[in-house]
């Protein structure tokens, strides 16, 4: 069966300033899942040939309220997706919109970050103080282009936002809790504090620090996590024992990310991580694959504790960079759209919780798998749109919810906008599924 959407594809028509995607007005078709039904379009009486007769009839009852569209989540990537030249396609396709944002980015960080993004070399862009603000700023630039050039409104089109580690800052901007200027400044200071904490650990204790992904079979994951927490002496929920707190950084390891049903990331001293992996292989009865990540710091490990204090001080201060908000609380409450916390895998519940959890997120485990499961299973989110460089986030989401690209699985899909050429496909996919209703979610 084929669903034909009646009426114009609202999201596909770019604003008058758009410079690309000429096929945006095409009629859309899509095969819906059997669990979804197409909603009939309300009849427009003014276009009927029986208008004169209709005027002599008593007014019809008000139509039943339209059933809601599938729930939609907007998500943003974390560190590791940076790439030299990642701004260039956006500046070429949308120069009028993108150029002023790039200038603003450079002004906020206080140096020509755009030159580092444009020209590299990669070793400079990959440095944490450059990579984190570059990724966050690029993500928001893409979102601003969607808003201005295509009329995409987060508060009308999206039900939840979330971001992987660093991406949480972009998620909070997109959902109206923190202004871009304040958020980018926080990301810059967070990155500097993280890099400084790593440097001090290396100077004081020696050793090599970083992150290692552990890939296992899904049935073994919970047992693997429990074994690692027993080995290191504290859990991934932030509940550390007193003995663990007293250990030197060279001895400390933490589960930095629980990314999916078959992947976690360990962070800390590399030799200690190797010992831990050997212990797991010997005593757990299976052989998980270990992959060293390209990271110059052990994010979300106890070594990052100084960064938590830096973030608390900034978040408990006032906005100083946003015109018209000088002196106001840096966190707005409520926001426009619920945002899911990395620490709790649930939506932020108060202004105070945003401040506390966003600061603690530097140290504690990123509960990405839990966040996706919560939105998929409890909130019945059926459409997922990643915004920002790289497709790592889309792949992680797809592992959990069983969707890839524009597949009409469960009435939705998992998409990513990383390049201007992908905008049309994503907006088309949203429009094709706009009138589908998940009967399980009713």
From TrEMBL:
<dbReference type="GO" id="GO:0004314">
    <property type="term" value="F:[acyl-carrier-protein] S-malonyltransferase activity"/>
</dbReference>
<feature type="domain" description="Malonyl-CoA:ACP transacylase (MAT)">
    <location>
        <begin position="75"/>
        <end position="422"/>
    </location>
</feature>
<dbReference type="InterPro" id="IPR014043">
    <property type="entry name" value="Acyl_transferase_dom"/>
</dbReference>
<keyword id="KW-0808">Transferase</keyword>
<protein>
    <recommendedName>
        <fullName>[acyl-carrier-protein] S-malonyltransferase</fullName>
        <ecNumber>2.3.1.39</ecNumber>
    </recommendedName>
</protein>
<dbReference type="InterPro" id="IPR016036">
    <property type="entry name" value="Malonyl_transacylase_ACP-bd"/>
</dbReference>
<dbReference type="InterPro" id="IPR050858">
    <property type="entry name" value="Mal-CoA-ACP_Trans/PKS_FabD"/>
</dbReference>
<keyword id="KW-0012">Acyltransferase</keyword>
<dbReference type="InterPro" id="IPR016035">
    <property type="entry name" value="Acyl_Trfase/lysoPLipase"/>
</dbReference>
<dbReference type="InterPro" id="IPR001227">
    <property type="entry name" value="Ac_transferase_dom_sf"/>
</dbReference>
<dbReference type="Pfam" id="PF00698">
    <property type="entry name" value="Acyl_transf_1"/>
</dbReference>
<feature type="compositionally biased region" description="Polar residues">
    <location>
        <begin position="43"/>
        <end position="53"/>
    </location>
</feature>
<feature type="region of interest" description="Disordered">
    <location>
        <begin position="41"/>
        <end position="70"/>
    </location>
</feature>
